[in-house]
Every structure is written in structure tokens, then in C-alpha cells.
Amino acid sequence: MSVLKVENISKNFGSSEVLRDISFTLEKGDVLAIIGSSGSGKTTLLRCLNFLETPDTGRIYVNDELLLDCADKTTMRESEIRTKRLHFGLVFQNFNLFPQYNILKNVSLAPSLLKLGTPEEIDTNAKKLIERVGLSDKLDSYPCQLSGGQQQRVAIARALALNPDILCFDEPTSALDPELTGEVLKVIKGLKGSDSTMIVVTHEMEFAKNVADKVIYMADGIIEEMGTPDEIFNNPKSDKTRAFLAKSLENL
What we know:
The protein is α/β, with parallel strands linked by helices. It is 37% helix and 25% strand.
């Protein structure tokens, strides 16, 4: 059974076609890396999966449950959208931590508001997740007291706190200095094999090549090529894929 099935997702902004007929599946524990140039539709796809944008066409299933069918024109209530959004955790480029709360509060706030356990259970789980990303000594620190890499690790712990079916990363290292990129990628890599199903939009080609189970290369709003890392990086079939990889790997 697929954890995630995406069928024929399309999205327009005015006359601009941003996504065209996007379809793919993910099995439990899979890591999918989505690569492509800026403007290829990668972030819009993540936003559609997370119900931050509404596609114009297509269907989204999680664990064989139909979450979205664009052919159904019934307007979803905001409460329905929030519930469906819980299937996905999203780690943004720019952390988006709450500056007024310490790290423990940042991680425990959403589970507390949703009453996902007793206060003691939520507190204990938050501390375990913060330890998992290597920041046990920062429980009482505030975001402004952390490096960018540390803030992004807190954001990962916060996303994990809601126990999503699929964890999504939107260019998680793009706002970081090169020396901080490695610590975040190490945490994401450490989640592989722990039954975490992940979608990582990334410009880190080595990460995509060495960690992903499946790679999608997007260009001009479509899936230009999809396959294993070996197929995409060592034997690409598309001229566009070959040109993109040549340019990307040249810059390493």
C-alpha cells in the first residue's frame, strides 16, 4: 500500500501553468528528492500537498484515503483543511519559529493546542525530539540565540512532533551558510530508516544522490524524469536532465 499517491495534479496562477499533470507514488519509509531549477514548480507542488495551495485538477491519497479530489467542487471547511494538513509536516526554508517562545515551547505548542496527549506526555515527547536533533542543551534558548542550522533542526523537531505520515522539506538548507548545511542534512539523513517517509526539495545533489530512494527532476512544471538516484544521476534519459545535472555538478 502506498503511503502517498498523487494523480494528475495541475496548478495555474492566472495564465501561468505552474504544475502540469503531476503523478507519483511513495511507499512507507521512502525518501523522495525533488530537484530542478528555480521556477520549475517544486515549491508549489509541496504547497499543494500541504493544502497551502489548492490544485486546479488532480487527486491526493494518503494511506489509500482520498484527501483531495479537485473534481469535487464542494468547498472544504477550514477545520477539514487543518485536519487533512496533519498528514503532512512541512519544514520551510526560513525556519518560521516563534521568536517569543523558547525551543521547548516551539516544539510542544502545536501538540498542546491539538491536545495530542497529556501535558506531561507532550513535554516528554518534545524533549525526546529535541534530543534527536542534537539540541538537548538548548531547551530554554530562544530562536534568536541559535545559529541558522540549529533553528532549522528545531523546525524539524517541531514538524516531527505532530507525527505526520509524510515529512516535507522545502529547500531546508538554502538559507544556511555552507558550514551549517551539513548539520541539517545529517539530521535529515538520520531520519531515513526510521519509518519516516520524506519529500525533500533540494539543490544538494550529493544528498539527493546518496540518501534518496527516488528522484524527480522537474522542469517547466512537469516531471521531466523520475527514477532511482542511479538512473537519474548516472543514466539520465532526458536532454534537459543531462543539461541540468551538468550545470549543477559543475558548481559543486
